[in-house]
Design goal:
The protein contains 9 helices and 2 strands; from the N terminus they run E-E-H-H-H-H-H-H-H-H-H. The chain is mostly helical and about 230 residues long. The protein has a two-stranded antiparallel ribbon with strand order 1-2.
Length: about 230
Amino acid sequence: FLFDRSQDAHFFGGIWPEMLGTLYLSIGAMLFAIPFGVVAAIYLSGYAGEGRLTRLIRVSISSLAGVPSIVFGLFGLAFFINTIEISNSKSVLAGSLTLALLVLPIIIRASEEAIKAVPRGYREAAMSLGGGKWHTIVKVVLPAALPGILTSIIVSLGRAAGETAPIIFTAAVSVGKPLAVWQTVSQPTPALPWSIYNLATEHEAVNEIRHVQYGMVLTLVVLVLLLNL
């Protein structure tokens, strides 16, 4: 069930392409979201002043965190696929970028709060010993704030793995083959969240394949738990 491909629209076989696609999308989203999120948090907490522009940026980040995920999916379709054309149609790359935008506000705000929570004495001690501002942030502040930053990353990773709406228009297909890493740039992939929804609502033999739906749900729950661990 876990390591075979589906056959005859999930009447037989397993869910390996869906598992692999979920991992590709989740890890790909983190590869884009973590660097931008942490750098933005460093800028807002250590370099940006308390002016009107900074307040506007913070309000915008908080607003993005509350936007429905389907809006991110439509934006990903309109921008990544139709405007800048990073792929000809749906692809894992487009889906990963869309999921990265979805979780980016969470990483920025949580990382910023973790950095602010580091005692001011740490910074003063490092700078009194001759450390520059950037050196102090990288060598002293970030290691002290790492638990809070990692928490935001873990929460974001779990959310990215379970999201359905953002990948409907950008990355997911109902049935497909397992992708090699280099194919993720241009090819769509099956994914557990979308396949669960599809099998439960649109499959021609919904009642006959309930066991497959339940198996997918259990696999997704276990996969998110393992990612959190």
